[in-house]
Amino acid sequence: MKIWLALFALLAPATAMAADSVSLTSKVFVERMKPGADGKLVAVREEPGVVTPGDKLAFVLRYRNSTAQPATGFTLTNPIPPSVAFAGTDDSTASVSVDGGKTWGALATLKVVAADGTSRPAVAADVTHIRWSFGQPIAAGSGGELSFRGVVE
């Protein structure tokens, strides 16, 4: 089954809290392994036209404070599209939720509760949202980039 990129754009909008002055842009890329100049395989991010189950995706979120004042209390939350399994982030400051955004933490600390009340440790496939809370103000005119990975189910 093929899934069009537009579906991801509609299912995974990032939201920002407590800083109307910070602009956001987001893009989704397919990560593929291709031979580099030396013949060794390197990861390459490409604009996806069509993605299929098993494709590895990179979600890239760029933020910028376009005002003359620092932006404080900034939080960025992104839902994981239902057709994508969360595959991690390189940012240790990110927290995740496995219950639709009700509770947050490091994945290793979270539990999934079954309908019968039993619980088990959460795994990456359980992640429903990812969130970054900025402890420091975003300086006037500055910005940055955050990303996470997923796999098309």
Question: What's the arrangement of secondary structure elements?
Answer:
Blueprint: E1 3-4, H1 5-11, E2 15-17, E3 22-35, E4 41-46, E5 50-51, E6 56-65, E7 75-79, E8 84-88, E9 95-97, E10 111-113, E11 119-121, E12 129-133, E13 143-152
Antiparallel strand pairs: 1-5, 2-7, 3-4, 3-6, 6-13, 7-12, 8-13, 9-12, 10-11
Give an overview of the whole structure.
The chain has 153 residues and is mainly beta. The chain contains one helix and 13 strands, in the order βαββββββββββββ. It has a five-stranded antiparallel sheet. It has a four-stranded antiparallel sheet with strand order 2-7-12-9, with no helix packed on it. It has a two-stranded antiparallel sheet with strand order 1-5. The longest helix is centred in the first third of the chain and has 7 residues. The N terminus is likely disordered.
Q: Which characteristics define this entry?
A:
single chain; disordered N terminus; flat; mainly beta; five-stranded antiparallel beta sheet; 5% helix; 153 residues
User: How far from one another are the termini?
Assistant: 10 Å
Helix fraction, binned, reads: under 10%
User: What is the number of helical segments per DSSP (H or I, 4+ residues)?
Assistant: 1
Mean pLDDT rating: 87
Largest sheet geometry: 5 strands, antiparallel
Poorly predicted regions: 1-11
Q: How big a fraction of the residues is strand?
A: over 45%
Q: What shape does the CA trace take?
A: flat
SSE class: mainly beta
Summary, kept brief:
It contains one helix and 13 strands; from the N terminus they run E-H-E-E-E-E-E-E-E-E-E-E-E-E. The chain is mainly beta and about 150 residues long.
